[in-house]
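Query structure, 280 tokens:
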């Protein structure tokens, strides 16, 4: 598929599967917006894409552990790009890190919930106007088959914390957002889907967890690109895929009340609406 008239933003695209997706989209001719925290790694990805003969690339630096930086990233994209055809929310942190201790974001939220879910929630909503204006457009959320129901009495896991639970809760939150947003965007020409790209890919995240990789980054990239550009997915929305096959997520993803509670909390935490309005 040629994507010469398409603009794509991939978060977390300086390493792992995000980097492979960015390069392959560049090979297809898309204008690729690479995102990451490290400028040197970002420049390396830009060079790799330019080596394919495509110089329509740019790097956007932001730490998604800060909602202020998420807002700055969205503003840069809105200012620099006339259109956005595909948004791939891929950035995330795994279950390992800090020797199992609970960590918080710059805004004081549990770190995995903040980076893996809240950042994508905020970025997506801030970019919805340009996505709508570019329709047909697609949003792809890179989630996981590892999913843990959200305890709304302790979303930030202040009791009984584990990195594994934090990670799997954040991934289910992404899926719940997908289902919820699909309903909001019905008829707009913007679709939203999510997926588990592959199991234990050979990535930094998996190696840091001490897990032996059993899938390749290429397999994961194939699955993400299927949702991002496959003609067979045109107009299909609100779906969860396991690799390249439509599947069912945790039952909480299909609980309308749970999704409403998560949406209300997310709007309040990201400041998209006033806290008093979010509680009403």
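Result returned for the query:
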């Amino acid at each position: 598929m040629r994507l010469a008239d398409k603009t794509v933003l991939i978060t977390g695209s300086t390493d792992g599967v995000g980097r492979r997706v960015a390069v392959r989209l560049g090979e297809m001719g898309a204008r690729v917006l690479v995102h990451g925290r490290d400028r040197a790694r970002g420049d390396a990805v830009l060079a790799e894409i330019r080596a394919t003969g495509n110089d329509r690339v740019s790097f956007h630096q932001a730490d998604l552990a800060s909602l202020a930086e998420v807002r700055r990233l969205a503003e840069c994209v809105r200012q620099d790009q006339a259109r956005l055809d595909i948004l791939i929310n891929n950035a995330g942190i795994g279950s390992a890190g800090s020797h199992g201790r609970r960590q918080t974001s710059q805004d004081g939220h549990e770190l995995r919930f903040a980076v893996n879910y809240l950042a994508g929630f905020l970025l997506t909503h801030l970019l919805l106007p340009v996505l709508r204006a570019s329709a047909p457009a697609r949003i792809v959320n890179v989630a996981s088959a590892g999913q843990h129901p959200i305890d709304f009495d302790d979303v930030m896991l202040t009791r009984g914390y584990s990195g594994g639970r934090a990670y799997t809760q954040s991934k289910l939150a992404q899926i719940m957002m997908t289902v919820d947003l699909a309903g909001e965007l019905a008829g707009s020409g913007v679709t939203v889907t999510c997926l588990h790209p592959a199991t234990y890919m050979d990535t930094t995240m998996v190696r840091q967890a001490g897990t032996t990789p059993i899938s390749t980054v290429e397999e994961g990239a194939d699955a993400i690109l299927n949702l991002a550009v496959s003609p067979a997915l045109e107009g299909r929305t609100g779906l969860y895929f396991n690799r390249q096959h439509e599947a069912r997520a945790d039952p909480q993803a299909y609980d309308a009340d749970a999704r409403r509670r998560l949406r209300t909390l997310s709007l309040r935490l990201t400041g998209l609406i006033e806290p008093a309005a979010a509680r009403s």
